[in-house]
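Re: the request from the purification team.
They wanted to know what the chain is likely to look like in 3D before they choose a buffer screen. I agreed to run a prediction and write the result into the notebook, where they can find it.
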Amino acid sequence: MPTGSALREVLAAVTRRSVTVAASEPLATDADTPSVLADYTLAGGRLAVCCVADSGLADALGGAVESWDEIANQLARLLNSPDTPALRVRAVTRLPGELPDDVASLLREPRARRSFDVAVDELGRGTLSLVMA
């Protein structure tokens, strides 16, 4: 799982703003909570990770770049390493809304979860959770 400092570096590079990141309590990850969710799959299509940002952080990051899809693609850099299978963004979903069955299942019973409080200079703050299958 990525560290807070690695997350800060990626978000600062993509937003071109000062970003602070600290460990946080887990974000509520369900289909009814206003948020943005990106899901990442392995080459064979199996779900591996979900990244969920609450509405405050989604607005802050979305205000710095053209779309949340770009944020999701940049966050994939955190999830890929020479020692792990390559992941790619399958979908970006705005919530509340319907979730694919595999995503809903992962959010209910993750193997691991790491959450961060993220503040983007002059744009806002919120929570980001990474949920691993």
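For the purification team: The longest strand covers residues 87-95.
Please add any questions underneath this entry.
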